[in-house]
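Put briefly, the fold is written as integer tokens. The lines below illustrate.
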Amino acid sequence: MQEFSDAKWSYVTRGVTDRGVTRLGGLAREPRLGDLVAARVVSVSAHDSLENIHGRRVRLYPGDVVVGAAGNRYATDYYEGYLAAGTTAHLLTAGGVVGVVASAHSRRGEPTELEVLGFLTDRTGATLSLENFAMSAPPQARPELGTFVVVGSSMNAGKTTTAAAMVRGWARAGLHVGAGKVTGSGSGKDRWMYEDAGAAEIVDFLDFGMPSTFGYPQERLHATMVGIRDVLACRGASVVVLEIADGLLQAETRALAAKLPGFADGVVLAVADALSAVAGVGIMHDLGVPVRAVSGLLTASPLASREAAEATGLDVLSPAELITGGALDLLNRATVPA
């Protein structure tokens, strides 16, 4: 089909090799997480552009054919979405996750509507998934100076900004830094923030075959967290920072946080306000996870930062402070896993 040859390939398909030999198949079965799908844009609304495989935003028009991946989305200030059964679907993310919106934040408009044309197949007619292009499990390895994990109280609490500031602080000191995104929805913006901050090695869940991690088994997500750390260490990173998406009330985030004792050398909690700092530190304490410092959007307010420091007894470090010495101090206070 000529329209398929002119399709706009989304960011979540960046790892797909030999795109030119893929074929458009039918919809003989229900979609599975990670299936590659082609869809025609019916109407353009909240997502009026698509992040392509290079990370550039390309404008969408009705009639465009896009290639994305079937998946779910968990975003408290955007969309809650799930796999689409049938031909009617929505663009859940600008990165190319395709599903059906179940609920939306009141600030968000109607989703961009899609008509699913079919699954992508190889030459033999076998349905293709991001699983087909996932990296193999690496040998176990640990970075010499430790693994640090950023966990947040909620979406948009400043997790990526905090992780990038840690990267910058270590990179300025001449360290070979690795950065990884453990969970979330496939998008290039976090990757670019790590890269711009000076990360020498970057790996995320998309490299392990998932367009969006919401809905995957806990065991798979834990294995991915360990695998990202191992890949970064194998590539020579002397220190690693990993970011876990969403907030501690999200079931998968909380389950991963419970796995941090014995894995993380230090945990930084990113929060939006002082009360969230108190609640987050309490939740982490109940999970047996010691928090080394608090950061995030909270640090935009000196007064709120003082409230959090007094209530938690922890250092509250702004991104600027992490860059200018705070990240290095975390190395000195790290607890080496057994």
Remarks:
- Residues 256 and 325 are 28 Å apart (CA to CA).
- The chain has a mean pLDDT of 95.
